[in-house]
Amino acid sequence: MVSKEDDNKKIEEEAKMIGKRLALLMAASSLDDEVKNAYMTLLPEMEMEQIDQLMKMLERNVQDAAEIEAASLVKNLEGIKADHAKKVAEAEQRALKEMETIETILNDVEGV
Hints:
It is built from three helices and no strands. The protein is mainly alpha-helical. The protein has one domain. 2% of the residues are buried.
């Protein structure tokens, strides 16, 4: 049989886990600090259902921010890749011109 003390410990553990998750989501969210502080002020007065809704909203916010950041990183990497390809093409052109110059010099030397 489960004692009331065991039930209380279980509830306390669950509350701690929810609190940690909420703190992580709040810290990772892109909400203004003013909005975060307002939610934290209201938190003690919220019912569990409201806290659950807040956590779901924060999860969406964090996910949306991560998707935006990932898209930005992809765009940045594509720009770097294009810049690299351009520099490689320029280096290849310079190398070809230098090889032509060397070939011309060698042909002139052989012709002497």
